[in-house]
Amino acid sequence: MMRALIFSALAVMCLGAHCRPIDGCVRGATRCSSNTAEICDADGSYHELADCDDVSERSGAPFVCAYVDETTEDGHITGHTCVPASEADAAAGGGR
Fold first, then answer.
1. Residue 8 above 60 pLDDT?
2. Is 73 contained in some domain?
3. What is the distance between the alpha carbons of residues 1 and 53, in angstroms, rounded to a whole number?
4. Is residue 10 part of a domain?
5. Domain that holds residue 77
6. What is the Cα–Cα distance from 33 to 15, expressed in whole angstroms?
7. Three-state DSSP class for 1?
8. What is the Cβ-side half-sphere exposure of residue 20, based on CA atoms within 13 angstroms?
9. What's the whole-model pTM score?
10. Which tens digits make up the pLDDT trace of 48-91?
11. Does residue 11 lie in a domain region?
């Protein structure tokens, strides 16, 4: 009885704390996981930043997850995000 009570308490605590595996990533790091851009948060876990399939569906144009490193009027931007497939293809040398 006591073990079941302890196990139940631990399960509730874990669910309340949103237990999930720790990826060991650095806060702010980004990556592509399939066609989803993810960002690392303070607890060392990746979370969905943008689902590129969803972006494609909503925009009516194909988007893919890719690494961006560019300077704009707002500053220098680096990281993984959803970009139009045509831009990703051109960056990879396929748009010649």
1. no
2. yes
3. 48
4. no
5. 23-91
6. 24
7. coil
8. 9
9. 0.67
10. 999 999 999 999 999 999 999 999 899 998 999 999 998 877 66
11. no
